Amino acid sequence: MALFLALLLQAAALAAAPDPPRPLSFQATLDAIRITVQPGQVATRQFRLTLDRDQQPTQFKARIEDWWRSEDGKQSFYAKPGTLRRSCGEWVSINPVEATVQPGATLTIRITVSMPVEVQAGGFWCALTVDEVPSPLEAGGEGVGVRFVASVSAGIFVNVEPVRREASILGLDVAKDAASVNLRNDGNTPLAVEGRIEFFSPGASTPLSSVALSRRTLLTEPSRNGVIGVTLPSAEALPAGRYRVRVILDIGTDHYIGAERELDLLREGSPERAAD
Amino acid sequence: MLTRVTGVRRLIEAACAGAVLCTLSVPRPAWSQTTVTLPDTSLTTTMSVNVSEQVRVTVPAGVTFTVSNIGVSTVAAAVAITADQIVTSSAAKQLRISLQANAASFTPPVAGAVTWSASDVSWNAATWTNATGSAATLSHSSSETVATCQADTSSCSTIGLVFTLAPKPTVQRSGTHTLVVAWKLESI
Q1: Contact assignment for A48 to B52 by CB distance below 8 Å
Q2: Residue A165's closest CA among A186, A193, A196?
Q3: pTM value?
Q4: A75 vs B93, B143, B148: nearest CB
Q5: Are the beta carbons of A197 and A180 closer than 8 angstroms?
Q6: Contact flag B144-A74 (C-beta cutoff 8 Å)
Q7: Inter-chain residue contact B188 with A32, CB threshold 8 Å
Q8: Hey, which residues 50-69 in chain B have their CB within 8 Å of chain A?
Q9: CB of B107 within 8 Å of any CB in chain A?
C-alpha cells in the first residue's frame, strides 16, 4: 500500500512538473502590406499564423513598431511607433493583440489602417510584429541558458499620392569576390530595389556575366542611402581582367535606372592592380 | 568615373514578351472540314488561386551553456533551424533570419548579482543549405543577421549553428542565468 501511494505521488509530481521547452514550428504569411490611400480612407488587411499540429498551445502577442535597417542591410532596428517622422504606426490598429493558438489552428490578425484627414504626400511605413510569448509553466534550464522565442515581422507601407519614386546610383565597386552598389533614395517614398550587375569584356556588346541583386528596401529616413552587395561568380566564369561594369536597377517606375564604369576585377591570386 | 546609362527601358523587355505571345497566337492551318461542337464558353468559370508570401519555420527552444570555468569562453551544443515552404513575391526577394535579445543582460539567479550581457553571446557563420550564414554578436538594440536564404529557394536550413558565451570572471553566483532571445523572420 505504501509503495502504491509512493508511486501515485511520484506520478502526480511528474504530471505537475513544468514542461521543458520544445522547438517551435509554425507557418506564417509574410506579405508586406502595401496600400495607396487617400487622406481619411480606411484599409484593412490580414496576417495569418498556423501552428503545426504537433505543437503545444502557444501564446502570441502582436504589436505595431517603427522599423528601419542599417545602410549595409545587415541590421534591423525596431522602435515604438512615432520614432520616425514617416511612421504609419499611429494610424494602424490590430485585432486581436494577443491570443493562444491551439495545435493546427490559425491565428488571424486583422490590420486596419485609418488615414488621418490631413497628411503629407509620400510614403509612410511601419511593421507588424508577432511574438511568441514564453509559457510561464515551462521549466527553466539549469545553468546559463538562452530561451528562444519566435518573432515574425511584416512591413506595412502606406503611400499617399503624389508619390515620387527616384533614386541615384552613387557608386559601383568590385572586390575579389564581391560587388556592391551604393544608392540614394531621392524620392518621397520607400523603394523596393532589385536588379543586376553586368560584366562586359572590352568591345563586347553582350555581357560575359550577369549577377542578380537581391531585393532591398531603400527608405527615406533615418538614412536615404543603402548598399546592395552581391557575391561574384567563380573566377572560371568571371576571370580577372578589365571590364565595363554596368548596373541596371528596377525601382518600381516605368523605366530602369543604370550606371556603368570601367574597372579592373582582381580575383584570388591575381596580381594587385589599382581599379579604374 | 561613373556613367549614367540611358535607354535601358522596361518597354524593350515588354516588347520581347509581346513578340513571344504573338508567335503563340499564329493560327494553325485547317486540315479537315469536320464539324465539331464547341463548348459554350459563357458557362465556364475562371478559377484563380491567390497565394500569399509565406514560410514554415522550426526554431530551437533554447541553448544551455554549461559554464565550468567563468574565465574562458563556453560553447553550447549546435542547434538546428529550418525554413521551408518559402513563397515570395519575387525571385529577387530573400528571407532573412536574425536574432535580437529581449533584454540587455541575462537575469541572474539572485537579484543584483553580476551576470552576462546580451553582447557576450555570439554565433558562428554556420554552414547552411540554400542560405548564407553570418557570424555576429547578439544585441538588445538591433536584430543581427544569422542567415539570408538564397533568392528563389523553397527551403533553407542548418544543423550547425553554434553559440558561444564570452568569459565573465566577475560572475560570483552559481545557478540559473537566463536570457530570452527572439528569432526574427523578416519580410520587409
Answers
A1: yes
A2: A186
A3: 0.82
A4: B143
A5: no
A6: yes
A7: yes
A8: 52-67
A9: no
Q: Categorize the per-residue pLDDT at B39 as very low, low, confident or very high, splitting at 50, 70 and 90.
A: low
pLDDT of residue B123: 97
State the ipTM, two decimals. 0.81
A152-183: pLDDT as tens digits: 999 999 999 999 999 999 999 998 899 999 99
DSSP string, A93-123: EEE-SEEEE-TT-EEEEEEEEE--SS--SEE
CB atoms within 10 A of CB A219: 22
Cell numbers placing A14: 511528474
Determine which of A96-100, A117-121, A141-145 has the lowest per-residue pLDDT on average: A141-145
| Ordered structural domains, chain A, with CATH | 4-160 (2.60.40.10), 167-265 (2.60.40.10)
A144, A148, A157, A214: which to substitute to probe chain B, counting the most B Cβ within 10 Å? A144
Task: Give the minimum alpha-carbon distance from A123 to chain B in angstroms, rounded to a whole number.
Answer: 14
Domains of chain B in start order, with CATH, are: 1-28 (no CATH), 59-186 (2.60.40)
